[in-house]
Amino acid sequence: MREHLWLIGPLSGDRADPSPLVVNGHRRSRGPYTVGGAILRAVVPEVLGRAPAHVAFHDIEIRSVAPDLRDRVAARRETIDARIDDDERILVPAPRRTLRLANGVAEFLGACLNGPRTLVVENLHEADPTDLELLAVLVRRLDPALLTMVLASRQPPPRWFRGRVADSAGPGAGQVHAEPGQGWPPHAGGAAHVASDCTDERSRAAYEALDPAERARLHDLRADELEAAEEFSPRLGAVPFHREHGADPRGRGAEALWTAVDHCVGEGFLDAVIELGRRGLRLAEPGSDLWWRFTQRTATALGALSRQDEARDLYERARRGSQDPAVHAASAYGTAMLDARHPDPDRRDLGRARGWINQAVAISTLLPDREERAFKLGFDRNGQALIEARAGEPHKALSLVESAIELARRDLPPGRHPVHRMVLSANRGRLLAELGRTKEALEEYTEAIAVDPLFADHYLDRGNLLFRLGLTDEALADYEAAIRVSPPLPEAYYNRAEVRLAVGDLAGGRADLDHVLELDPDHLDAYINRAGVLAVLGLAAEARADVETGLALMPDNPHLLTVKGQLDTVSGHFEEAARAFDTALDRAPDLGTAWANRGILRYETGDAEGAVADLSRAIEIEEGPELYFNRATALRALGRGEAAMDDLRRALDLDPGDPDIRRALGLR
């Protein structure tokens, strides 16, 4: 039986079978997706010959993970952000984009690998986070009989690893013996590989053994490769150590690093942005335009990864090192967003955020160029709107967004800054929806989608509003559009599951929730909903497993405790059920399902008075025919027949076709 292997220590130089794909996983070799790119470069060309539709279906994942395949894999789904000028690009992909890419690669390999293969990864302890995340997904989603992985690291295996662990110092442990199966195509480096990939002892020894003139030639060749690339070379981590001859080696290295940083920002490779950006800051001239660009991109990535203090320090360095008004305005904006968006609600400081954003607005207002002023001031007012929205002032927030929209309409040339306009439309839609102006909100979302029909997030937002309005078919269509235009997107499947469950499609809803948890095993809400579905389907053991897994992620979650209480009630563990419901209501006093189910428990244990009280509280939170029916049952047990009949009549109003209600009222 094939199984994965984690080797603690280096691999043996003697590999008994040449058929595995052996990859140096050090991030300085090719940067983000050093391992993922090697896999795709080995698989995609062959799959193009026999199943090109599979390649086309996963174009986003392949082009992002292995950018040197872009000349062979057309962009079938390319957002507008990839086609506009650099000074108009304002979106930074969310940190979870790499999870979507990893799942897309896993699904591509699962569909296209046509025989057992072995992947060997060296230096995994130095891998980029994108590769670690990808390998975790491959271990979880692919059968080792299809892809067996041998992962060599100086560190013990993480929680996600499933397989055998061995010390490479043991007899024969460091040798790789691949079982017979489909081989991989040859895997070779580029012309300047030895000059840029000195990431372990063997490659560094080869590098140092080179004749100095040859080493200099390879360094120059590598620098030329980086500078000549219109889209940065896939070797994102492999910038030259130095330039052996020629002018301005610091400048050449800094420009190469900037190209890498810019590429990584666009793809959402945020850890690499931070590492490469800091390297660039050491090379760039303090106070220069390039130095500021490194500062801003690095600080943005730090903030996105919840490293607020480090980002704040970079903005402070920028303020101390520059007298450029644009730098001070952008630093003030960035600092304001750190305060307003802090992941810990207790550390958010909206008052301080207002002070910083006011400074940004004050500076942008004074910019002399009309177009630049309209863009930057509109951008700042949009940030100001976020702060007001979080402060519970949606009307103020809406006024600010509308002023930014008016600036764009009046002072920006037609066709310029489409992404900025799209973001403003979507934000106006969110605020209008919050204020109950749903028709206008839908129009704004539709306008945002028209700007870029391949941007998935706005389909989700519009779908959520449509679902709240009860337009389930239209909501379903939007969620399915989001699924089509994006790599595997857990949120879209989760939202589609909610629609399916709302219309009574338990099987379809469960299938979507299953897929959500395959894509993201830490998706708490999916465990909550699937546990409820499984309980309704009578699959108590499976439901309890989801409850336990979810509570491990978030102990005392009131929704999971409510499902636990339901399961304990059905199984006759009444004391445990009561504790679960009590704890749930302590955590969420307005959770109607907890009141309703505790009412059922109280009725089952002979406390009809308590059942009526709990069911009455549930009805106050949200009416439902089953709540009135159950309270009628408890009222009858207390001898309050007329009140029970009133409840049954109200239940019939809410659900005229329910046979149990009609039977209780003596109707056919």
Cα-to-Cα separation, first versus last residue: 62 Å
What class would the helix/strand composition place it in?
Answer: mainly alpha
Largest sheet: 5 strands, parallel
Helix share, percent: 55-70%
Gyration radius, rounded: 29 Å
Based on DSSP secondary structure assignment, what is the total number of beta strands?
Answer: 5
Unreliable stretches covering 5 or more consecutive residues: 14-18, 187-197, 225-234, 239-247
The helix count comes to: 32
- Report mean pLDDT, rounded to a whole number: 90
For the biggest β-sheet, the strand order reads: 2-3-4-1-5
What is the overall shape? globular
SS strand fraction: under 5%
Task: Present the secondary structure layout.
Blueprint: E1 5-8, E2 21-24, H1 27-30, H2 34-50, H3 52-57, H4 59-65, H5 97-112, E3 117-122, H6 129-141, E4 147-153, E5 164-167, H7 193-196, H8 201-209, H9 212-228, H10 249-267, H11 270-283, H12 289-304, H13 308-321, H14 325-340, H15 350-365, H16 370-390, H17 394-411, H18 418-434, H19 438-451, H20 456-468, H21 472-485, H22 490-502, H23 506-519, H24 524-536, H25 540-553, H26 558-570, H27 574-587, H28 592-604, H29 608-621, H30 625-637, H31 641-654, H32 659-664
Helix pairs in contact: 4-5, 5-6, 10-11, 10-12, 11-12, 12-13, 12-14, 13-14, 14-15, 14-16, 15-16, 16-17, 16-18, 17-18, 18-19, 19-20, 20-21, 20-22, 21-22, 22-23, 23-24, 24-25, 24-26, 25-26, 26-27, 26-28, 27-28, 28-29, 28-30, 29-30, 30-31
